[in-house]
Amino acid sequence: MFETFQLAAGGSTGGGGGIATMILPLVLMFAIFYFLLIRPQQKKQKTRNSMLGALKKGDKVVTIGGLHGTIMEITDDIVVLRVNDVTKLTFDRSSISHATSTASDSQA
């Protein structure tokens, strides 16, 4: 009776690794999250920032709301788009979704 109590209380004989077997799955999960979620998002953000930084007067762009226009004026944080011959709208620079063509593309 006393022998079974001692084995159940603390005498594990085949533990094999202990804390390493608990940490390894956490490290693997973090690595999977990094390569599947974090790293692609960082690459996408870097590409978007370089696109926003390369915008210049005359570029044709689309806003995140779907509005198509041509850049008439641009500052560090504000963009004025010409929508048609008369209408000019002011947007934040971060509201530009993507550039459809540049001034040099349309002239060629």
UniProtKB/TrEMBL annotation:
Membrane-spanning residues: 19-38
UniProt main location, coarse: membrane
Topological category with respect to the lipid bilayer: Single-pass membrane protein
Coiled-coil positions: none
Keyword tags: Cell membrane, Membrane, Protein transport, Translocation, Transmembrane, Transmembrane helix, Transport
Domain of life: Bacteria
Cell location: Cell membrane
Xref: SMART domains: YajC
InterPro entries to which the protein is assigned, alphabetical: Preprotein_translocase_YajC (IPR003849)
Family: Belongs to the YajC family.
Record protein name field: Preprotein translocase subunit YajC
Organism in which the protein naturally occurs: Paenibacillus chibensis
Gene field: yajC
